[in-house]
Design a protein that fits this description.
TIM Barrel; alpha/beta; Sugar phosphate isomerase/epimerase; globular; eight-stranded parallel beta barrel; isomerase; Xyl_isomerase-like_TIM-brl; single chain
């Protein structure tokens, strides 16, 4: 399994610091945060020289570049244009995909239709750039559960489009995360993972997003990913740690790596024994 970290965990530090500490924590790769107002380790105006430096950092750290998270309100035309510029930079970096949420409001048909059209536009732009667009199911947004995700994949037919599933979002809207992975397995191209108190609507503070410290059924989620032969990246996404000291942020990454690594190893061993 390909385990990575979204650099948003190190949002209070530069990209070089993030890369060094992700590598030291034992991960295989990373996801670059390009989230305006939160963490911009890759900007939409990054020059070719900037991209060369990022690629060199990753290569020297022996980390793969899995994805870019460019979370934004895609219903705003200027934000879609920004996202398209991120697509172009992902392609130059050799990063295979970019992920965003759908924006809009859950169960609002007018906003859902607007989200579908925005996603369709961005999927086309991703295809033109030669990358994929991983739409994240997100609590409170138009595409937020199994039903709306299946609707999206039925109505927006573009080979560049796939899904990014995060059990903490799917679980908080009332879907069983394991059943969601099973139902959506043919469309999942990327995965975010973390812990939280899934029975609460708000994501817990960073120390409870550490894998194994909350109530997300991570063992069952991992077992289902292994069962369905998911072969994409699994990226730890911890939000809210921008003001944390570097040792604390690194400890969050390291503890989660140990827990998730063990879950995947044990799940794959059980699968081998069952054959």
């Amino acid at each position: 399994m390909k385990l990575g970290v979204n650099t948003v965990l190190f949002g209070g530090y530069d990209v070089k610091t993030a890369v060094e500490h992700i590598a030291f924590s034992g991960y295989d790769g990373l996801e670059l945060a390009s989230i305006a107002g939160m963490a911009e380790h890759l900007t939409d105006t990054a020059t070719d020289q900037d991209l060369t430096e990022i690629r060199k950092m990753a290569e020297e750290a022996e980390l793969d570049l899995y994805c870019i998270e460019a979370a934004t309100d895609i219903l705003q035309p200027e934000n879609r244009e920004r996202t398209k510029r991120v697509f172009e930079r992902a392609a130059k970096l050799g990063i295979p995909m970019v992920t965003t949420g759908s924006s809009g409001a859950s169960d609002d048909e007018a906003e859902t239709e607007a989200s579908l059209r925005a996603i369709e536009e961005l999927a086309g732009a991703a295809q033109d750039a030669g990358i994929r667009y991983a739409l994240k199911l997100h609590y409170g947004q138009s595409i937020y559960n199994t039903k709306t995700a299946l609707r999206l994949m039925k109505e927006v037919r573009n080979p560049a489009l796939g899904l990014n599933v995060d059990a903490t979002h799917v679980g908080r809207v009332g879907d069983d995360p394991v059943e969601a992975i099973d139902a959506l397995q043919d469309h999942i191209i990327h995965t975010h993972i973390r812990d939280t108190f899934i029975e609460q609507l708000k994501i817990a503070p960073p120390e409870y997003q550490i894998a194994g410290r909350g109530s997300v059924p991570l063992k069952d989620v991992v077992d289902k990913m292994v069962e369905t032969k998911y072969d994409g990246a699994v990226v730890l996404e911890i939000i809210g740690a921008n003001a944390y000291s570097l040792p604390k942020a690194a400890a969050i990454a390291a503890e989660s790596r140990g827990y998730l690594g063990r879950l995947f190893e044990e799940s794959m061993e059980r699968k081998d024994v069952a054959r």
